[in-house]
Each structure stands twice: as structure tokens, then as C-alpha cells.
Amino acid sequence: MNWFYLSIAIIAEVVATSALKSANGFTEILPSIIVVVGYLLSFYLLSLTLSSIPVSVVYAIWSGVGMALITLIGWKFYGQALDTPAMIGLVLIVTGVVLLNGFSSSITT
Q1: CA 82, 87, 88, 94 torsion: positive or negative?
Q2: What angle do CA 87, 88, 93 make, to 5 degrees?
Q3: Tell me: the pLDDT tens digits for 17-28?
Q4: Model confidence over 29-80: pLDDT tens digits?
Q5: Distance CA 107, CA 42 (A)
Q6: φ, ψ of residue 74 in degrees (nearest 5)
Q7: Residues 6+ apart with CB under 8 A from 20
Q8: Beta-carbon neighbour count of residue 106 at 10 Å?
Q9: Which own/partner pairs from 93-97 qualify as long-range (CB within 8 Å, at least 24 positions apart)?
Q10: Dist. CA 72–CA 66, nearest whole Å
Q11: pTM higher than 0.90, yes or no?
């Protein structure tokens, strides 16, 4: 269940971060509500995962996957460019998350 909570926490954080641009400095009500609710939900669910997964692993996965998803959303919906170093960085982030999940013994401690 903790991996499910972490997945939803990542999605909530990505939705909240994506809505920040539309919130226009918190002057637009609906996007501002999405930002606040998204971050509250994300941090709450993130805290639930810490009962069985080490904080370093949780934070690495949460921030790494979130950063990769936000980068892709910025590219797809906001027209932000992804150059070669950005693409290499995203591949390295995803590789790091795969290594943590697939091969690290620190996840089970």
C-alpha cells in the first residue's frame, strides 16, 4: 500500500506544480486551490510511506519522478525546449529510480 501512496503523492505533486503557472501568483482562485490541495495531499501521502520505506529512498523517488514528469509536462503543454543535456538528465533520473527500486537493499530496511 505504501508504494500506492507514493505513486499518488507523486501525481498530486505534479498536478499541483503544473497548476502553479495558471495560479498566476495565487491570484487565480481555482488553480490556487489545486496547488494547495495537491501539495497537502502529496505531503500527507508522502508521510504515510515513511512507515516502511526509508526517507532517503522515498524522497529520491518522489523528487526524481516528479521532476521528470514536470519536465515532460513543461515540454508538452508549455512548449518548453528539451535539449540534449536535459534529455540525458531525464534518462539518468529514471535510471536512478529504477536502480533504487530494482537493486537497492536499502528499500527493504
Answers
A1: positive
A2: 95
A3: 999 989 999 999
A4: 999 999 999 999 999 999 999 988 888 888 888 988 898 899 889 999 888 8
A5: 20
A6: -60, -40
A7: 31, 35
A8: 11
A9: 93/64, 93/65, 93/67, 93/68, 94/64, 94/68, 96/60, 96/64, 97/60, 97/61, 97/64, 97/65
A10: 10
A11: no
Q: Which residue has the cell 494547495?
A: 36
Three cell numbers written together for 109: 530496511
Residue boundaries of the structural domains of the chain? 2-108
Query: DSSP of 33-67, one letter per residue?
Result: HHHHHHHHHHHHHHHHHTTTS-HHHHHHHHHHHHH
Listing DSSP states for 12-29 in one string gives HHHHHHHHHHHHTTTTSH
Cα angle 40, 108, 42; round to 5: 10
The Cβ of residue 91 has, within 10 Å, a number of other Cβ atoms equal to 11
